[in-house]
Amino acid sequence: MSDMSSKELVRDRLILENELPKIPSGWSVERLRFILTESKERNGKEPVGEMLSVSEFRGVVPKVYDSEEQRRTDQEVENYRVVRPGQLAVNSMWLNHLGLGVSEHLGHVSPAYGVYDLSTRLVPRFAHHLVRSQFYLKIYLRYLYGIRPNSFQIKANDWANIPILLPDLATQKAIADFLDRETARIDQLIEKKQRLVALLGEQRASAISSAVTVGVDEDADLVPTSSQYLPRVPATWRVWRLKHLAEIRGGLTLGRQIPDSLQTTLTPYMRVANVQAGWLDLSDVAETPVTDAEKKRYFLEHGDVLMNEGGDNDKLGRGAVWKSDIDACVHQNHVFAVRPNDTRYSDWISLATNARYARDFFYLHSNQSTNLASISKTNLSRFPVALPPFEEMNAVLDVLWDRVGKLDLINAKTNNSIDRLREYRAALITAAVTGQIDVATYGKRGETDRTFDRIEEEVRN
To answer: Which residues are 307's β-sheet partners?
Structure first.
């Protein structure tokens, strides 16, 4: 058998085994172990460059810290792997989220990463797009194993045998140039839309803050109060402390010891992640064993305002109304259940917890640690709420819901457009690196622009 026929046999087998798409006849396919060489370089006493991490959307990027206290000391990173521009960095525990990429930065990564030198037969930017394409994600998912989604692993032999598509260098460069150009255009459009989403969020927050502090009547007479957080309110309103409007109930402690003699029922519970600013995220509701006595004590009632006792400062204190979305549900000890004396005021109290003055109150009345904060039941009870007469409150809410509804509609359409653009970006990369489109003619036909127009039209309709 000739060398050429042997290569063709290996190529055909790799295509069949990995369900590769039909690729151009001039492209070769080889196993990863023949294309990558693991780098053993470590930091040592002097760290090389900056700390790097892998972003799901951007690949290898400088690590962003929430606080300076999170930064590692030089001694702590002595054994960290060095990453040089043009090397592939791989977080194998994050491959299900495309946790890899060819670096453009000099720096270092956790010892848990793999770092590889590329063969001269690979153009680095082509390799970056190739291994981060949706097609390769399917290959990684086929080989990953483990129990927890964010700590999957891939066996060394499976990793070494992953197929790598190899066009000639000129074709690789053409594909990389095309994708760099087109993805940059898409990213700019996504960024523009994300700025609009941020602006809509600010307008929404402003509308809520204004409604629950001064109402919607711009000509209303405002009178001074004794509250530093609500210094002036409409003359018909009154400022109350939360403890006078509602009962504040602590939550269930998880991990507690339950006597074997007590019967328990696996029960859903609300935690900090479920309580968003004005709404409940029920996409991931956890369950815990609960006794009958605990059910009675921590059972949520329709109209309860759930408020976060702890978390980062963005999560702290934010509230949402429980509207019996789940038949039987309790709340954990990091979530307060604020039970209004009159549930007709539930929405108003919830809105007040998400107003801008509430952010100041919760920050100043909380215990701050390195990354988290918490507020006590006693301090929460002092939270001020400006309450209008019932009929006036309903009139304010009618105007507010109308404003917020319009903003939410624009926000939903904009986010839908962003999702579609990201889907198109991923599909374009996969099509280009697997040879399903001719990049030399695709751009000239204006396919990207037509896709942009089609996405915008679908969102508008």
So the answer is: 319, 336
